[in-house]
Amino acid sequence: MSLMENVKNKVSLITGDFLGGINSAIITLPQALAFGVATGFGASAGIWGAIILCFVAGLLGPKIPLISGVTGPVAIVTASVMMSLNNDIKAAITVILLAAICQIVASFTNLPSMVKYVPYPVISGFMNGVGVIIIILQLNPLLGHCAMPSTVSTVLSLHDSLLSLNRAALFIGILTLFIVFSIPKSVNKIIPSQIVALVFCTWLSIKLGLNIERINEVSVGLPTLVSPDLNISNIVKYLPYALTLAVVFSAESMMTGLVSDSLTKTRHNPKKLLASQGIGNIFCALTGSIGGSAATMRSVAALNSGATTKLCTVINPLLLLILLFKFSGFVAQIPLAVLAGILIKIGYDIIDVKLLKVLKYAPKDDLYVLLLVFLLTVFYNLIFAVGAGITLAALLYAKRLADKADIIHKPVYDIDTMEMEKALEQNYHHKIRVVHIAGQFFFGSATQLISKFEDMLGTRYLILNYESDDLLDISAIFALEDIIMRLKSQDVEIILVIKNENVLKQLADHSITAQIGEKNVFYTEIMAIDYAKEQLKLS
């Protein structure tokens, strides 16, 4: 590579990191302010938490640029902790510190790798629940009233809130909702709708002199050190809250890491990710800021803008610092109804629309798990909901295996077929490969299988042979979609061998066969191999 090309590549990398840092900061600003207010810590704690955690966790974390800060699930759990501690901020800061320490301790164990075994319906039920909670809790601020501490109390208070609504707050809130929902995706990629709504609606409310609740106070000074209450009795008292918060901190960070791996075609170190998040959250706690996690939406925005290195995680907090110091007066004038509108859009985005579209095709067991987790998340306890969902999923899976135990017949694998496949790969220089998905394809095996398709260099046609008669669960369906997407990005054509009619119908219902192409679906492996050979000759 010439010196000029080397310079161009480095400039391209730096430019991508700058754009990634800027775009993710624009998304972070309204969210951090809104979540700060929603938790009861205040807008300043939200923005400082985003600055500190992104910088510390970004520098100490994996090579992939992950943008961190307070997120929807973190905000909901933090608000719940604050309510349980009678809005004692010092006690809540102690909980955040203990949660951060729990994260660091967990990073020395195998717990970080366990997140991939959580069934998709549990994740979906949890995220749908969090999205609905965020929307419900913002209904009162949208009407010009104070936010209630829980979904139940919010629903019960809605009648009175409607009778005494603040029309000006409702007007500005509805305008915010109109902007965030109506701006096209193509424009949203250039300038996020949330920042457009924040700036325009705040400016309009000031211009019209609307009498509505505003943030009013934003600290532009550097945060001061806070000493937590770390005596033995408090540690014992706050530990259950800390464990709950640590699970949310860690699970969302792990999920963001998995999404980023999928986009960058890399594999991060989950232990390093967890440790860096824990250290970052310690700094947040000691400065009185809100802890957080790696944020999927912001990290994806950075990666899609071209970010590739940790420089992006430095640019993001630096820009937030500049915005905070230069525009603190304007930030203080942001109406709470505007933040409510932004949070409602965030809540809507968290809801798993992808699953809702295929809900009618989902197995009943998946629906039971999803519904249980969703209802417990919205109306009871988030972490209990996840635990109950995992337990139910495991019990239902065990039941399925037990029900089939007396009728399963596994034939001995054909030696001639093995020899044929071996010769096929050698003769065609791995341009045609055959992969067998043996056994039931369910949530426990789905994520394991994805990792085997990371690199299929040189392969033109990949024959996926699913030998089982068992239907796929929803986790496996989405895992199969992920495999198809990865292989297509490597210009690998997929040929599917399905022996069971019910499995084939299930894949058709979920549009898997349409994605692959119906001409690429066969009943026997021999037919699939002959087709691949023919196509290779024609190309």
Structural summary, described in words:
The chain has 539 residues and is mainly alpha-helical. It folds into two domains: 3-135 and 166-352, no CATH class; 415-538, STAS domain (Transcription Regulator spoIIAA). 67% of the residues lie in helices and 4% in strands. The protein has helices at residues 3-39, 43-60, 72-84, 89-106, 120-137, 139-142, 151-163, 167-182, 185-190, 193-207, 232-264, 270-286, 296-304, 312-326, 328-332, 336-350, 353-357, 364-379, 382-404, 415-427, 443-450, 474-489, 501-509, 512-516, 525-538; strands spanning 68-69, 293-294, 432-437, 461-466, 493-498, 521-522. The strands form two sheets. It has a four-stranded parallel beta sheet with strand order 3-4-5-6, with helices on both faces. A two-stranded antiparallel ribbon has the order 1-2. The chain is globular, with a radius of gyration of 25 Å. The two termini are 32 Å apart. 46% of the residues are buried. Mean pLDDT is 80; it is low at 405-414.
Layout of SSEs?
Blueprint: H1 3-39, H2 43-60, E1 68-69, H3 72-84, H4 89-106, H5 120-137, H6 139-142, H7 151-163, H8 167-182, H9 185-190, H10 193-207, H11 232-264, H12 270-286, E2 293-294, H13 296-304, H14 312-326, H15 328-332, H16 336-350, H17 353-357, H18 364-379, H19 382-404, H20 415-427, E3 432-437, H21 443-450, E4 461-466, H22 474-489, E5 493-498, H23 501-509, H24 512-516, E6 521-522, H25 525-538
Characteristic key phrases:
single chain; 539 residues; mainly alpha; Transcription Regulator spoIIAA; 2 domains; two-stranded antiparallel sheet; 25 helices; 6 strands; 67% helix; 4% strand
